[in-house]
Amino acid sequence: MNSSHEIARTTLLRRGFALEYTTLAWNVVGIVVLAVAAISARSVALAGFGLDSLIEIGASTVVVWELSGTGAERQRRALRLIGGAFALLAVYLMVQSTVVLIAGYHPQPSLLGIVWTGVTAAAMLALAAGKARTGAALDNPVLRTEGKVTFVDGVLAAVVLLGLTLNSVLGWWWADPMGGYVIVFYAVREVREIYSGEH
Question: Range of 117's domain?
């Protein structure tokens, strides 16, 4: 019975590592794609989404580190690091959205940006669901919490996609920064829960 439990746990750990390495690889490629798209379209939103990809890389690295070891203190430290990533994401989105709205900055349409954010939204939401299930099966709060970072990444990709599409089709340049405030609210809530010990 114990041997079967260990085999199941090992399988779940492998799945957790696979999910995190997939997330890491996707975001490394994404930084390059987003840099090209942001420069060609002069898009603050796409450049900002590249920064979000950096935060996701950091969060995934933390989970890989945590899954490689054991202990409550290691989990607490990993959760605090992920909480820091959420805080950075909230600050970045608040500043970016406010600056874009005040400046009235009008980015150029970006087909590359629309395609990449659309595919990224689907990929990140699928990865987030996998992390939530695997984290629950392992009873690992770090993997579950980082899955929420991935979920935010997917929602942010969808928000950026909506903003890029509305700007391209209707000229609604303000749609993207307004949507950013929705993600700020979610990220701040997660930071509060992590540091209050609710996770």
Answer: 2-195
